[in-house]
Design a protein that fits this description.
By secondary structure, the protein is of the alpha/beta class. It folds into two domains: about 15-355, Aldolase class I (TIM Barrel); about 360-384, no CATH class. It has twelve helices and 13 strands. It has helices spanning about 40-50, 80-95, 125-130, 160-180, 190-195, 210-230, 255-265, 295-305, 320-325, 340, 345-355, 365-380, and strands at about 15, 20, 25, 55-65, 75, 100-105, 140, 155, 180-185, 235-240, 270-275, 310-315, 335. It has an eight-stranded parallel β-barrel with strand order 3-4-6-9-10-11-12-13, surrounded by seven helices. Strand 1 (about 15) and strand 2 form a beta hairpin. Helix 2 crosses helix 4, helix 4 packs parallel to helix 6 and helix 6 (about 210-230) packs parallel to helix 7. The structure holds flavin mononucleotide. The site of flavin mononucleotide has 20 residues, from strand 4 and helix 10.
Length: about 375
Amino acid sequence: MADHPTSALFSSLTVKGTTFKNRIVISPMCTYSAEEGLASDWHMIHLSQFAMGGAAAVFTEAAAVEPRGKITHGDLGIWSADHAKALKPVTAAIAKYGALPAIQLAHAGRKASMQRPWHGNGAMDKNDAARGEMPWDIVAPSPEPLRDGWLMPSELTVGEIIAIEDQFALAAGHALDAGFEVLEIHSAHGYLSHTFLSPTSNQRNDAYGGDRAGRMRFPLETAEKVRAVWPDDKPLFVRISSVDTDGVTEGWQLEDSVVLASELKARGVDVIDCSSSGISGPATAAQGKTSLGYRTAYTSRIGSEADITTMVVGLVIHAEHAEAIVDEGQADLVAIGREALFDPYWARHAAHKLGADPKFADWPEQYGWWLVRREPLVSEYREA
Ligand SMILES: Cc1cc2nc3c(=O)[nH]c(=O)nc-3n(C[C@H](O)[C@H](O)[C@H](O)COP(=O)(O)O)c2cc1C
């Protein structure tokens, strides 16, 4: 198992031809700060700090594969060569500071055209119009709005569905040109792909709806098309909502996720990123009470039953907990989200706590040289 002498979390993992130096991945997190989908200095500094902070891979936020698929006006995009060009300094900085640059490709479907969280996190209204931000037409498998008061999506025709699948493949090509080493398809959180999967949002009775096989058609065809473009030696992840938990009793279930994961694996997907929820509301922002690492059981079951590499995400905040998850084989990778916003150096601090880097040898020498000499002076004052 571990190639690190003391820590499973700090052992490496090779997926296809790509090596993760440890098991810590920065989870995709929207910052809603792009203009027309283009990355800027913000994205470079924001993301490269996590590379400097010791994570093995750093995901961009969801990057829309077409303008219609943005969640908000501020979303990142990857639908043109200009978008790839704007992301090149970002991937260069992440790689320079020691992490694998990773990108999440997304289409927001019926959750497109909404407010940034700090503008209300709801359907756009007159306050957005006053800022010059107007809603745009949105699409979904079925003409079902997210909730009352939200935009009505128009139902995609089969030709339009295939065109969006092709947009994912084109976006994968742009991501490659931009220098990304890891790619993830977003199929979770109530966005387009998840709304195909869940019977609560997919009322189609053609080849893209109906039974589970029909509802899985869009994500599976998308994965196939992306894999055809994305090089064989580079890992392909798919993030899924392992189960519809948010008040939906007849939704997508864990056993469905096991089948989906197996089918994705058969199409060349390497890693299932096991999230949950979001079909009828926010996946993260408004969740009720959850416990630390609450998706670990889902992840463990999907990994063992579909026999596929997994990543767990959701309230993993303690180094020792992440260590136990990997050591016990419950997940192969651990995604850190908000805790990395709190502490972009989470991975280096975890290594220190777990004794995986006692001499600060993996730190940039500009810091490590000082910290190893300071350690004897401060260690007795540290909290247990
Ligand atoms: C600010 C913010 C933005 C997010 N944006 C995305 C996103 O773009 N794509 C995605 O799959 N999940 C997104 N998420 C969910 C996170 O990736 C992660 O799954 C979630 O925050 C739970 O993990 P945590 O408890 O470690 O934060 C976002 C979460 C936050 C807090």
